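ok so i was messing around last nite and threw this chain in just to see what happens. nothing serious, just curious
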Amino acid sequence: MKQFIVITAMGITISFTVFAGVIAFADSSDSGKEIYAENCSACHGDDGKGAFPGITPDFTSKKGPLSKSDKVLIKHITDGYESEGSQMEMPALGGNDELTDADVKKVLEYIRDNFQPK
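result:
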């Protein structure tokens, strides 16, 4: 739902578009790809195979992290996680506490769309 507010002052008219709810302003406008590039690729690699083989998980592996449910992966991204056998723990929100729930969902969707084993 959109509402238009018109303010006229000293012969100048200004129009604003207001979206129902503040969520549109609270969530990042970045795409999942941008969020991944800024927060995830340093460890997980641009190709999702892991920038540090044997230390960071390979998203493209059929038995890798993407074999888990979205609910589990959202919890791992949000709370942080250390994969079995890994020597490095992923920090909560990839170390960026400014990421929102919407950002987490966007980045997970990007990861699934681009690295999910076929």
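not much to say yet. The beta strands are 2-9, 12-19.
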